[in-house]
Amino acid sequence: MNTSVSVSRPIAVRVLIGDDHRIVREGLRQVLGDPANGAPEIVVAAEAVTGPEVLAQVAALGGRAGLDLVLLDIALPGRDGLDVLQALRADWP
User: Fold this and answer.
1) Greatest CA span in the chain, whole angstroms?
2) Which domains, from first to last, does the chain contain?
3) Does the record's keyword annotation contain Phosphoprotein (predicted)?
4) What is the distance between the alpha carbons of residues 36 and 47, in angstroms, rounded to a whole number?
């Protein structure tokens, strides 16, 4: 009788953090990367400081294929977070 149990690793959730405040990005990175949170592994795949940089990073990572979640500050320089969200939804529905 085979009593071994197959344990699979949770799929990593790939996140981009878009915020112009370094301390916020660092804090989110620490909280999201803490294995004690009990969630699947979360990997901060990229960070961006401006709205255009968010869009460029998402495109460079392959859009929806390369990211699972984008955390956006609403008051991003260059292009606000709501405008960036609209562009993301248009480009990667």
Assistant:
1) 63
2) 13-91 (3.40.50.2300)
3) yes
4) 22
> Residue 81 has which token pair?
């977070």
What's the predicted TM-score (pTM) here? 0.82
Residues 45 and 34: beta-carbon distance below 8 Å: no
Contacts of 46 (CB under 8 A, 6+ apart): 16, 17, 57, 60, 61, 67
Percent of the chain at pLDDT above 70? 83
Task: Annotate 64-93 with b (16+ C-beta within 10 A) or e (fewer).
Answer: eeebeebbbbeebeebebeebbebbeeeee
Amino acid letter, residue 32: L
Q: Which two tokens stand for residue 32?
A: 């999201």
pLDDT tens sequence across 17-33:
999 999 999 999 988 87
